[in-house]
Design brief:
Layout (H helix, E strand, L loop, with lengths): L35 H13 L10 H9 L7 H8 L3 H11 L13 H8 L1 H16 L7 H24 L7 H7 L2 H14 L8 H21 L4 H9 L11 H13 L10 H11 L3 H19 L1
Helix pairs in contact: 1-9, 1-10, 2-3, 2-6, 4-6, 5-6, 6-8, 7-8, 7-9, 7-12, 7-14, 9-10, 10-11, 11-12, 12-13
Length: 305
Amino acid sequence: MTGPRGLGAGTGAKRREGYGRGTHSIRGGAIAAATPEELAEQVLARFAAPGYEPPLLPAVALQLLEISRKSSTTFRDVMGLLEQEPLLTGRVVQLAKSAAYATREPVKNLEQAVSRLGLRTLTDLFLQVSASARVFRAPGFEPVMERVRRHSIVTAYLSRELTLAIGSDDDEAFLAGLLHDAGIAAMLILAAELCNRRAPPDLSTVWSAIFGAHVHAVGVLATAWKLSEELTITLRRHHDPIPGGKLHRRAAVVCVADWLASEVAPMDEVSEETAAEVRRALGISEPDVERMRSLAQRIAESLAA
């Protein structure tokens, strides 16, 4: 694989002391790789090192996911959490005002967003905003990181809708789709740091190594983020959702969502043959596929707006 369709690595890279709010660092400082091959080797080595500290999702995002599962959760509980991250919450309210979430009366503030969107939709929006702010950023690799971000968001929405289409109710489907390529994002962050002040190489020269390791990488991230065991397995199996002939249902949903998302935000991840096999295993009909294609197009257009 030479790289996702239509992507380059961007030009120029500025050194950053940290990532997010000081949650990302590379112990030992940055090392400017002399060649693309050396850069790829260093990224993989640093990612596997015991001292590696990944970009972290805000604790509030995962706490919100946890309380969204509880029937005893109150309006006050939700507001108390969201108020701990005012910048991210402000972005959530902005998204809630967009056409994609439009209600009869426009959302004007956080209280209205909570009451009108519902806890699950609000949680998904907060996760989307959190990942965009803390995970999908790498100086010098902005074009590819933006493509990874858009692809991941489309996959997240499709994962949620496909779950409903097959008659399931899975409150982690959205997060599974959102984070399925977080391993790529984390390694691009490392590559940006390792390039130091030098311009990063053409993405195609390092993409094969990054893509080849991204499933292992997302497993490392899942452990660091203390995600549930089932979600961790999903992320590790999203390219192989029928191991030994036994279907892993959520991983299969993410696999199909990944395939469909690539039509509007290309990443060249899932083959037609694999997608067809997984669709049959899940019992996803052709009308459902066409409906998801339409949804994917609408989501992609809203992200580009």
